[in-house]
Amino acid sequence: MEVPEELLYTPEHEWIRVDNNKAVIGITEFAQDQLGDIVFVELPEIGSPVEQGSPFGVVESVKTVSDLYAPAGGRVTAVNKELEASPEKVNNEPFGEGWIVEIELSDAKELKTLLEPDVYAEQCQKELE
Q1: Which class for 1: exposed (0-12), middle (13-18), buried (19 or more C-beta within 10 A)?
Q2: DSSP string, 25-67
């Protein structure tokens, strides 16, 4: 299971990559593996606000429907429109072309509440036991 060192994670299996006050968000390899084949991703509107810990979209797979929870609050500045036609990109490249949204962070202090890669990997291991 891949857990990139440069990312931060939520207990609900979202990742966030921060670059200054912009952040890209997606779901982890663990999450997409647990969901199975993803068939639909509901994206938020550009410009819409997101709150840390609150749902901002939905991922639908052949097994289930899951809310996406914001790792940090801010305003949506971009969405991955390619997922509308090719939601399987989330399965194939969860940390690359399968990204979901980009936000402008409202409070960088919120990032301190997220999981470091080693802690997240440990959590995933426990969930598999």
Answers
A1: exposed
A2: EEE-HHHHHHH-SEEEEEPPPTT-EE-TTSEEEEEEESS-EEE
CA 104 to chain centre: 15
Give the whole-angstrom CA distance, residue 102 versus residue 50.
Answer: 11
Q: pLDDT tens string for the chain (129 positions)? A: 899 999 999 999 999 999 999 999 999 999 999 999 999 999 999 999 999 999 999 999 998 999 999 999 999 999 999 999 999 999 999 999 999 999 999 999 999 999 999 999 999 999 999
In order of 3, 41, 51, 64, the CA distances from 94 in angstroms are: 11, 13, 22, 18
CA dihedral sign, ordered 125, 108, 87, 4 = negative
pTM: 0.96
